[in-house]
Design a protein that fits this description.
The complex is a heterodimer of chains A (861) and B (436).
Chain A: E1 12-17, E2 21-23, E3 28-31, E4 33-38, E5 43-48, E6 52-55, E7 64-73, E8 81-90, E9 110-114, E10 122-124, E11 128-131, E12 133-136, E13 152-159, E14 164-166, H1 169-176, E15 186-188, H2 203-222, H3 234-239, H4 243-253, H5 258-270, H6 278-287, H7 291-298, H8 304-309, H9 311-320, H10 322-326, H11 348-367, H12 376-395, H13 400-408, H14 421-426, H15 435-451, H16 487-495, H17 508-524, E16 528-534, H18 540-556, E17 563-569, H19 578-588, H20 594-606, E18 614-620, H21 631-638, E19 647-653, H22 658-662, H23 665-671, E20 675-678, H24 683-693, H25 702-715, H26 719-736, H27 748-759, H28 763-768, H29 772-788, E21 792-794, H30 795-809, H31 816-828, E22 832-834, E23 844-847, H32 851-859
Parallel strand pairs in A: 9-13, 12-13, 16-19, 16-20, 17-18, 18-19
Antiparallel strand pairs in A: 1-4, 2-3, 3-7, 4-5, 5-15, 6-7, 6-11, 7-8, 8-9, 8-10, 13-14, 21-23, 22-23
Chain B: H1 2-29, H2 41-57, E1 61-66, H3 73-86, H4 88-91, E2 95-100, H5 107-117, H6 132-145, E3 154-159, H7 161-164, H8 171-180, E4 187-193, H9 198-201, H10 204-209, E5 214-216, H11 223-234, H12 243-258, H13 260-272, H14 276-287, H15 299-309, H16 313-319, H17 323-339, H18 346-359, H19 369-381, E6 385-387, E7 402-404, H20 408-417, H21 423-430
Parallel strand pairs in B: 1-4, 1-5, 2-3, 3-4
Antiparallel strand pairs in B: 6-7
The chains are: A alpha+beta (861), B alpha/beta (436).
InterPro entries (chain A): AAA+_ATPase, AAA_lid_10, ATPase_AAA_core, BAH_dom, BAH_sf, Cdc6_C, ORC1/CDC6, P-loop_NTPase
Protein name (chain A): Origin recognition complex subunit 1
Biased composition (Basic and acidic residues) (chain A): 355-366
C-alpha cells in the first residue's frame, strides 16, 4: 500500500480503443480496451478488459482495487462509459470488528478477493485511475513483505463478509490468465516534456496565483454537486465502519514507504510544469532552498539542474508510479460531470500548503544558520520567534491579508510521522479528521464568511459523507443557512459565544504561561501537571485551546517536537472511570472497558516502551472525576511523573482550592504546585473583548458596550454573559427599529433593556400578576408570620388568617379546597416553599421571597 | 303535525349538539395550536424570531419559558413551532426533539429518546447501543460533527425543565448548553418550567453556558379580556356545518357574556385563578348540561358548574358519614379546642364520646367500644384524621396519637347540611358544655 499524493489535479479524458462489439441482447456496446489520457496528453494509459485497476474511492491513499470484467457504453443520453468489475478489498476496508477473523497480521500489500454477490459491480468507467499489478499467490505461499515495488498487490484469500477463504483453483487459474501484457500498455509520452521552460515565479505572481487558485476552488465549490461517483461500492463502504480509525491505521502501516515515493513524485513533476497545478509549483519552489536537506534524505544527489537534465529518470519514475499522477482528490470527484472549462480545481486543503511554505520561508531568514543542528536552547529560541510572530499577526488583525493567513493555517492535529515539512504538506486531508481541527476549520470558514459575505458561495457543497463514517451525524440541512445580511446580524454572529475570535484579548499573560509550560515540557521530553482554576466564563478552556493551536502550528514548523493532543471533559462522561476509555480511544483508537483501558494506559505510560510522542492531555471539569477512592485523579496525575510517560496534563476546574479541598494528600502532591488561576474579567477587559469582536463593525454605541461590561463585571465577570447580553441587545434594537427600517445602532437604552431582562427577578411581576385570591393568601401568610413571629406556618393557621381577612373586607371567603389549590399553585412556581407531597392542614408553608418584596408587590395596585 | 316537526327539529338539534360538544371538548381538553394567543404577543415574537434564527441562520440559542401552570407555555411553543414549520424553507430543514422531565427521569432514558427522535439509531446498522457511556459519546460525537452552515438545526424542547436539573451532575443540560455555545451543530434548547427560581437550580457551569434568555408568561390579562376569552372559547367556528345553529349558538354565547349573573360567576372564577385551565373546567361542566331538550347554555348552567368547581372536597366526605362518625369528629373538635391542637388518641376520643352519650343517652345509641374503634379507623382511612407518626406495629391502636385534618369551620358548615342530624348532636357540636 503506497502513499498516493492527491494534489495532482489533472483532467483526464477517457476514450474507447477499438471497435465496439455490439451486444444485441443488452442494447449496449461493449469494448475491449479503453484509453485514459491526462489533459496535456503527457501520458496515456490503455486499460484492457481483464486487467486490474485502481478506482477512485473516498480514501485517496487506498483507492479501491478491482478487476475489469467488461467495458461498455450505457444507453443513457449522453452515453456514459461504464464498466463491470470484480472487486477486491483491502484489509482496512474490512469492518474493524471482523478483522480479527484473518487470524494473522495482514501483509502490507495484501488484498482480498471480494466474494460478495450483493455488492454492485458496475461503475462509471471515468472513475478508473489506472492499472495496478496484482499477483495471485497459492494458498501456501507467503506474501512477500519487502518488495521494492510498492505498487504490486497480492491476493491470497477471498472475503465474503463472513470469513476469509483460500481462493478456489479455477478462480485462481482464471485470474492469473490476463495478467501478461498489462504493464506494457502504459505509454509514457516523454517527448512532451516541457521542463526546460520552467518559469521562475516572482513572489508577486506567486501570490496572485495563489489567490487565483483559491478563487477557482471556491468557484468549483459553488457548482451543484452530482454524485456520479461509483455508488457501486456502497455496500463495501458500509461495511467499513471505523473509517477514520482505519485510515489512521493504514497511514501508520505505510509509514515506512511514503516518504520516498512522494519525494520521487515531486521530482518527476518538476519535469512537466505545464501539467502541474498551482500548489505543486509552489512546493517545488519552496523545495529549492531546502535542497541540501532533501537530497540528503533521499540519498540522491540531485540539484536543480540535474532535475532538468534527467528526463529519462523521471520517465522511469513515472512509469513506476502511474496512479500517483492520475489520482483524484475525493472532493473533486463530485465535480466530474461539469469539469469542462475548469483547468485546476483545487480542493481547499491544497490551498493551505503555500501558507506553510511561505511561513517557513520567512522564518528561514532568521533561523537558517541554526537549522542544521538544533539543540534545545536554539529550538526554544526559534519557537519564541514563532511566538512573537504569531503575536504580531494577532496584532495586525485589521490587515486582511494577515487575517487570511491566520485563517489558512490549519494545524494538523496529529502529526503522525516525523518526516520533513514537504511531506506534511502533501499529506491528504487525513489528519484533519480529528474533531479539534475540524472545528477550527469550520471557524475559519465562518470567519471568512464574516469578512466577505457577498463573495462567499451561497450554496455550499454539502459534505456528502459516505455511509462509512464511524459515527453518524445530524443530517445536513437541505437549504443552506442564510448568511447575515445587516450589520446587526453580523454583529450578532460575531457576538455568539461559539464564534472563537482570532485572538483572545486580556489573557496574554495566562496564554504565555501555559504556552511556556507545555512547550518546555515538550522540548525537555518530560511530563508534568498544571492546574488551572477560575470561575466559569473566564476563558480557561479557550486559552488552552489557543495554546494547543499555536503549539500545533509550531510543531508543524518543527519548532517543537510533535505531540498528541487529547481532550476529555468531566461533564461529558457518564462516570469518572469512563475517562480511561476516552483517553485510550483518542490515543490509539482502541475500544475497551474502563478497567481494561486503565490497564492499557498504565502499561503505555509506565513501562519503558518504544519512544513515543509526548501526549498533551486536557482534563476539563476536573472536579467531576472525583471518586471515593480518587483512583482516577491519582492515575491522571501519577502518569506524568513516570519517567517514560511523556505526558503533560492540564487540569481545569472552577475552584482554586480544589486540590486542598477534595483531594487526598497523595493526589494533590502529585498534582504539584504548578497552578494558575484565571481572575474574573474586569469591566475594562470585558469592554476590550467586546470591542475586539466588534472591530470594523459599527453596531454598538461605545457607551452601550461600557454599560454591559460594567454590569457584568459587577455581577460575575463572566464573558459569556457579556456576549449574550450584547446579542440580546442587538435583537431588541432590531425589533424596535424595524419600522423606520434604518440600520440601527445599539444604544444604552437597548443594552439596559437587555441587562434588565436577564438579571431582573421575576418574583415581583409574578405576584403582581397573580389572582386576587392568591394575593390574599400571600397577605394572610404575612399576617400569620407577623402574628407568630416565625418564618413558617401551617396551612391551617394561614387559612384561618385568610378567612379572617376576608371577613374584615366583607368578601366571600373561599373554601378549603380552593385555598389549597391556591397554595399549591404558589408552591409550584416557588413563590412559596411547601412540603412536597402533602396536601393537608398541617402542611408547612414558607415564603421564598422576602416579606418586603411581597409587601411591595401587593401595595402597588 | 307540529309535534312531528318539533321531533325532527330536536333530532337535528341532537346531531348538532353532539358535534358542538365534540368540537368544544376537543378545544378544552387538547391544547390545539389553532386557538388564538392572548396577551403574549411580545413573548411570542421573541420566541418565534429566535426559532427562525436557529432554523434559517443556524444560530444556536437557549431560552427558558417560565410561567405558572396553565399560563400557556406549551401553547406558545406549539404555536411558534407550527408557524415555523409553515415556512417552506424551514419545514424540511429542522429536526425537533421533545423531552419531558416527567418521562425522561434520568439522562440515560433521555439520551435514548434523543437518539430515537433524531433517527440516529439506524445509522450504525445492526449495532445495538450497549452502555450508557457509549450512547452518550456517540450522541455527542454526532452533534459535534456538524457546523453552523451545513448541519440541520435541532430544536430541543424540554418540558418540565426543572426536573432535568435534578439529574446527576446535570450532564445532559451541560452538554446541550455547551453545544449551543460552541460551533457545533446548531441547536436551540427551549426549556419550559413553572419554577421562578429555575436559574438557582442550575449548577454554576451549566448556568454560565445558558444564555439567560427568559420568556415570562404571567397571565397578565385583566377581567374584560377574561370575558373575551370566555366568549371566544365557547363560540363555534365559522366552518360549522349547520350555519343556522352556529349562528344561534354564538348569539346565545354573546348574550351570556353580557348577563350579570354570568359575569359574577366569571368574576369569582377570575378572582380565584387566572388559569385558563380552570375556565376550561367550568365550561366543560356547563357544556355537559346541554342536551337536546335544553340546547343552549344558560346562566344557571354556569352557576351550577361554578358551584361544582368550588365545592369543598372534605366537607363533601363529611356529608356521607354515619352519625357515630360525626359524633367522633365532634368529640375530636372539642379535644382540639380544649388542648389547643395537641394530638389525641382513640381512648381520649372515646372518653369524650362516652361523656356525651351518658348525658344524652336517649338520643344516641351507646355503641360497643370495638364498633367505635371501627368507625375511628374508617375516619383514618378517609384521611379525615391522620396519625402524627408513622404507624409502628407494636404500639396499641387505641393509644396512637392522631390529628384531625378538618378545620372547625369546615365541621360546622358540614353539619349544617348534614341530613337528619339529631338535634342533640348539633347542639353538642356548637358547645362542648351544652350538656351541663
Amino acid at each position: 500500500m503506497a502513499h498516493y499524493p492527491t494534489r495532482l489535479k489533472t483532467r483526464k479524458t477517457y476514450s474507447w480503443v477499438g471497435r465496439p462489439l455490439l451486444d444485441r441482447k443488452l442494447h449496449y456496446q461493449t469494448y475491449r480496451e479503453m484509453c485514459v489520457k491526462t489533459e496535456d496528453c503527457s501520458t496515456e494509459i490503455n486499460i484492457q478488459v481483464g486487467q486490474f485497476v485502481l478506482i477512485k474511492g473516498d480514501d485517496d491513499e487506498n483507492p479501491f482495487v478491482a478487476k475489469l470484467l467488461e467495458l461498455f457504453e450505457d444507453d443513457s443520453d449522453p452515453p456514459k462509459k461504464c464498466a463491470q468489475v470484480q472487486w477486491f478489498v483491502r484489509f482496512c476496508e474490512i469492518p474493524v470488528r471482523k478483522q480479527h477473523l484473518l487470524g494473522r497480521k495482514p501483509a502490507a500489500q495484501e488484498i482480498f478477493w471480494y466474494d460478495y454477490p450483493a455488492c454492485n459491480s458496475s461503475i462509471n468507467a471515468e472513475t478508473i485511475i489506472g492499472p495496478v499489478r496484482v499477483i495471485l499467490l497459492p494458498p501456501n505461499d507467503v506474501v512477500p513483505t519487502d518488495l521494492k515495488n510498492e505498487k504490486t498487490l497480492f491476493v491470497k484469500l477471498s472475503w465474503n463478509e463472513k470469513k476469509f477463504r483460500p481462493l478456489s483453483p479455477e478462480l485462481f487459474a482464471e485470474l492469473n490468465k490476463p495478467q501478461e501484457g498489462a504493464a506494457k500498455c502504459q505509454k509514457p509520452v516523454g517527448a512532451k516534456n516541457k521542463s526546460a521552460e520552467s518559469p521562475a515565479w516572482t513572489p508577486a505572481e506567486y501570490v496572485a496565483k495563489r489567490i487565483e487558485s483559491r478563487h477557482s476552488a471556491s468557484k468549483s465549490r459553488q457548482t451543484p454537486t452530482h454524485p456520479v461517483t461509483p455508488r457501486a461500492r456502497k455496500r463495501l463502504e458500509l461495511a467499513g465502519l471505523g473509517n477514520s480509525w482505519m485510515s489512521q491505521q493504514a497511514s501508520c502501516a505505510t509509514l515506512d514507504s511514503p516518504g520516498r515515493t512522494k519525494r520521487k513524485v515531486a521530482f518527476s513533476e518538476i519535469t512537466s510544469p505545464s501539467k502541474r497545478s498551482q500548489p505543486d509549483k509552489l512546493q517545488t519552489l519552496s523545495q529549492a532552498p531546502k535542497a541540501p536537506e532533501t537530497t540528503r534524505e533521499n540519498g540522491l544527489s540531485y540539484t536543480e539542474d540535474d532535475k532538468k537534465a534527467s528526463p529519462e529518470r523521471c520517465m522511469i519514475l513515472r512509469t513506476r508510479i502511474p496512479p500517483l499522477k492520475t489520482i483524484d482528490i475525493r472532493d473533486e470527484r463530485t465535480l466530474t460531470p461539469i469539469r469542462g472549462g475548469r483547468r485546476s480545481s483545487v480542493v481547499p486543503s491544497v490551498i493551505l500548503k503555500p501558507e506553510n511554505i511561505e511561513k517557513r520561508d520567512a522564518k528561514e531568514a532568521e533561523t537558517q544558520n541554526e537549522a542544521t543542528s538544533t539543540p534545545h536552547r536554539v529550538r526554544r529560541k526559534s519557537s519564541l520567534l514563532t511566538m512573537n510572530r504569531i503575536r504580531r499577526q494577532l496584532r495586525f488583525l485589521g490587515n486582511s491579508k494577515s487575517d487570511q493567513e491566520e485563517k489558512e493555517i490549519l494545524p494538523a492535529a496529529e502529526i503522525s510521522d516525523s518526516s520533513s515539512e514537504d511531506e506534511e504538506a502533501s499529506i491528504p486531508p487525513l489528519p484533519r479528521r480529528t474533531p479539534r481541527t475540524v472545528s477550527r476549520n469550520l471557524q475559519s470558514s465562518l470567519k471568512s464568511s464574516l469578512k466577505t459575505p457577498t463573495k462567499m458561495p451561497k450554496k455550499r457543497p454539502k459534505p456528502r459523507t459516505t455511509p462509512c463514517c464511524a459515527t453518524p451525524q445530524i443530517r445536513s440541512r437541505i437549504l443552506a443557512a442564510q448568511e447575515p445580511a445587516s450589520v446587526l446580524e453580523k454583529a450578532r454572529l460575531r457576538l455568539h459565544v461559539s464564534a472563537v475570535p482570532e485572538s483572545l484579548p486580556c489573557r496574554e499573560q495566562e496564554f504565555q504561561d501555559i504556552y511556556n509550560f507545555v512547550e518546555s515540557k515538550l522540548l525537555d521530553n518530560t511530563g508534568g501537571c498544571m492546574y488551572i482554576s477560575g470561575v466559569p466564563g473566564t476563558g480557561k478552556t479557550a486559552t488552552v485551546h489557543e495554546v494547543i493551536r499555536c503549539l500545533q502550528q509550531a510543531a508543524q514548523a518543527n519548532d517543537v517536537p510533535p505531540f498528541h493532543y487529547i481532550e476529555v471533559n468531566g461533564m461529558k462522561l457518564t462516570e469518572p472511570h469512563q475517562v480511561y476509555v476516552q483517553i485510550l480511544q483518542k490515543l490509539t483508537g482502541q475500544k475497551a472497558t474502563a478497567s481494561h483501558a486503565a490497564e492499557l494506559l498504565a502499561k503505555r505510560f509506565c513501562t519503558r516502551g518504544s519512544p513515543q510522542d509526548t501526549t498533551v492531555l486536557l482534563v476539563d471539569e476536573l472536579d467531576l472525576l472525583w471518586t471515593h477512592k480518587q483512583d482516577v485523579m491519582y492515575n491522571l496525575f501519577d502518569w506524568p511523573t513516570q519517567k517514560k510517560a511523556r505526558l503533560v496534563v492540564l487540569a481545569i476546574a472552577n475552584t482554586m482550592d480544589l486540590p486542598e479541598r477534595i483531594m487526598m494528600n497523595r493526589v494533590s502532591s502529585r498534582l504539584g504546585l504548578t497552578r494558575m488561576s484565571f481572575q474574573p474579567y474586569t469591566y475594562s477587559q470585558l469592554q476590550q473583548i467586546l470591542r475586539s469582536r466588534l472591530r470594523h463593525l459599527k453596531a454598538f454605541e461605545d457607551d452601550a458596550i461600557q454599560l454591559v461590561a460594567r454590569k457584568v463585571a459587577a455581577l460575575s465577570g463572566d464573558a459569556r454573559r457579556c456576549l449574550d447580553i450584547c446579542r440580546r441587545a442587538t435583537e431588541i434594537c432590531e425589533f424596535s427599529q424595524q419600522k423606520p427600517n434604518s440600520p440601527g445602532l445599539v444604544t444604552i437604552a437597548h443594552s439596559m433593556e437587555a441587562v434588565d431582562e436577564m438579571f431582573s427577578s421575576s418574583y415581583i411581576t409574578a405576584i403582581k400578576n397573580s389572582s386576587i385570591l392568591e394575593q390574599g393568601f400571600l397577605r394572610a401568610i404575612l399576617a400569620e408570620f407577623h402574628r407568630s413571629g416565625l418564618e413558617e406556618a401551617t396551612f391551617q393557621q394561614i387559612y384561618s388568617q385568610h378567612v379572617a381577612l376576608c371577613r374584615m373586607e366583607g368578601l366571600p371567603y373561599p373554601t378549603m379546597s380552593e385555598t389549597m389549590a391556591v397554595c399549591s399553585r404558589l408552591g409550584s412556581c416557588r413563590l412559596l416553599l411547601v412540603e412536597p407531597s402533602r396536601n393537608d392542614l398541617l402542611l408547612r408553608v414558607r415564603l421564598n421571597v422576602s416579606q418586603d418584596d411581597v409587601l411591595y408587590a401587593l401595595k402597588e395596585e | 303535525m307540529s309535534s312531528r316537526k318539533s321531533k325532527s327539529n330536536s333530532l337535528i338539534h341532537a346531531e348538532c349538539l353532539s358535534q358542538v360538544q365534540r368540537i368544544l371538548r376537543e378545544r378544552f381538553c387538547h391544547q390545539s395550536p389553532h386557538s388564538n394567543l392572548f396577551g403574549v404577543q411580545v413573548q411570542y415574537k421573541h420566541l418565534s424570531e429566535l426559532l427562525k434564527r436557529t432554523a434559517i441562520h443556524g444560530e444556536s440559542n437557549s431560552v427558558l419559558i417560565i410561567g405558572p401552570r396553565g399560563s400557556g407555555k406549551t401553547m406558545l411553543i406549539n404555536h411558534a413551532l407550527r408557524e415555523l414549520m409553515e415556512i417552506e424553507e424551514v419545514s424540511e430543514n429542522v429536526l425537533q426533539v421533545h423531552l419531558n422531565g416527567l418521562l425522561q427521569i434520568n439522562d440515560k432514558i433521555a439520551l435514548k429518546e434523543i437518539t430515537r427522535q433524531l433517527n440516529l439509531e439506524n445509522v450504525v446498522g445492526d449495532k445495538v447501543f450497549g452502555s450508557f457511556a457509549e450512547n452518550f459519546s456517540f450522541l455527542l460525537e454526532a452533534l459535534k460533527k456538524g457546523d453552523r452552515t451545513s448541519s440541520c438545526p435541532v430544536i430541543f424542547i424540554l418540558d418540565e425543565f426543572d426536573l432535568f436539573a435534578h439529574h446527576k451532575n446535570q450532564t445532559l443540560l451541560y452538554n446541550l448548553f455547551d453545544i449551543s455555545q460552541s460551533a457545533q451543530t446548531p441547536i436551540a434548547v427551549i426549556g419550559l418550567t413553572c419554577r421562578l427560581d429555575i436559574l438557582e437550580l442550575l449548577e454554576k457551569r451549566v448556568k454560565s453556558r445558558f444564555s439567560h434568555r427568559q420568556i415570562y408568561l404571567m397571565n397578565s390579562f385583566g377581567f374584560p379580556q377574561y370575558v373575551k376569552i370566555f366568549k371566544e372559547q365557547l363560540s363555534l367556528p365559522a366552518e360549522f356545518p349547520d350555519k343556522l345553529f352556529a349562528e344561534k349558538w354564538n348569539e346565545n354565547v354573546q348574550c351570556l357574556s353580557e348577563e350579570r349573573s354570568v359575569q359574577e360567576v366569571l368574576q369569582k372564577h377570575f378572582n380565584i385563578s387566572k388559569n385558563l385551565r380552570s375556565l376550561h373546567m367550568l365550561l366543560m361542566l356547563s357544556l355537559n348540561r346541554v342536551t337536546a331538550s335544553h340546547p343552549f347554555m344558560t346562566a344557571i348552567d354556569l352557576m351550577e358548574a361554578s358551584q361544582l368547581c368550588s365545592m369543598d372536597s372534605k366537607a363533601n366526605i363529611v356529608h356521607g358519614l354515619s352519625v357515630l362518625e360525626i359524633c367522633l369528629i365532634i368529640a375530636m373538635k372539642h379535644l382540639n379546642d380544649i388542648y389547643e391542637e395537641e394530638p389525641f388518641n382513640f381512648q381520649m376520643v372515646y372518653n369524650e364520646f362516652q361523656k356525651f352519650v351518658q348525658r344524652k343517652a336517649h338520643s344516641v345509641y351507646n355503641f360497643e367500644k370495638p364498633v367505635v374503634m371501627k368507625a375511628f379507623e374508617h375516619l383514618q382511612q378517609l384521611e379525615l384524621i391522620k396519625p402524627v407518626e408513622r404507624t409502628s406495629g407494636n404500639s396499641q391502636r387505641e393509644y396512637q396519637l392522631m390529628k384531625l385534618l378538618l378545620d372547625n369551620t369546615q365541621i360546622m358548615n358540614a353539619l349544617q347540611k348534614y341530613p337528619n342530624c339529631p338535634t342533640d348532636v348539633r347542639q353538642w357540636a356548637t358547645s362542648s358544655l351544652s350538656w351541663l
